[in-house]
Specification:
FAD/NAD(P)-binding domain; single chain; 2 domains
């Protein structure tokens, strides 16, 4: 279903009895063009981009538990692009721009809140390092502000400025940074991918890989049977080495 002010109004007038499932809880088919192992943020985002950007919609996402039950549900929820290394600056700024339009792209409230991210500094050396980082950000078109102690006190008067083990001297602020609700991000990608025809299959643990006579991977073996695949992708975070070992 597509969410809008009108769908919210219809649900309200019906006593919230007309809501449909956010995504289809699919059963596995015999074969897919692409099978993605791992139903977290990376796996579901990959499925959504394949379906939406490249038109590859015969896709399955396999999750051994429930979607978002792994690494996606265990993080700081912080979104930011306040990096200083050349390889990181552009990468994370592109990511930041994707966060900023995510709710419109997915048609889902992922609770993105650009409340700002501030890194405190506690010494002159740390201040100088943050000044260099902030300058690098600004040269690359990324917002950054170096705050002195008075500015930090005005912004966050609740901090311990009097008896802290590492006294606060100032901070580096990125106002566009903030937080996103990790569960909502997973559900949002699942909602959008499912709407494009992607099968999201929960409680389906991969236990091995199928191969042809030449050793090419042709599918996966799961707790719910064998599933053929033209391509298999892994997005299993901390289980990567274990799942990769099955592939040899």
């Amino acid at each position: 279903m597509k969410y809008s002010i009108f769908s919210l109004a219809r649900a309200a007038f019906s006593g919230h009895k007309t809501w449909q499932r956010t995504w289809r809880d699919a059963s596995p088919k015999g074969h897919y063009d692409v099978v993605i192992i791992g139903g977290g943020g990376h796996g579901l985002a990959t499925a959504w981009f394949l379906a939406g950007e490249y038109g590859i919609r015969n896709v399955a996402v396999l999750e051994k538990g429930w979607i978002g039950s792994g690494n996606a549900g265990r993080n700081t929820t912080i979104i930011r692009s306040n990096y200083g290394l050349p390889g990181n600056t552009g990468f994370y700024e592109l990511s930041m721009k994707l966060w900023e339009r995510m709710e419109q792209d997915l048609n889902y409230n992922t609770m993105v809140s650009q409340r700002g991210v501030i890194n405190l500094y506690h010494s002159d050396a740390q201040r100088d390092a943050y000044a260099r980082r902030g300058n690098t950000m600004r040269i690359n078109g990324i917002d950054a502000e170096l705050l002195d102690l008075a500015a930090v006190k005005k912004m966050m008067p609740f901090l311990n400025f009097d008896n802290a083990r590492f006294p606060v001297q100032g901070g580096l602020l990125q106002r566009r940074g903030g937080t996103a609700r990790h569960d909502a991000v997973v559900w949002g990608y699942a909602h959008a991918a499912s709407a494009l025809g992607v099968d999201i299959i929960q409680n389906c643990e991969v236990t091995g890989f199928s191969r042809d006579a030449n050793g090419k991977v042709t599918g996966v073996e799961t707790s719910r049977g064998k599933i053929g695949a033209g391509k298999v992708a892994m997005a299993v975070a901390g289980s990567s080495s274990r799942v990769a070992a099955m592939a040899g």
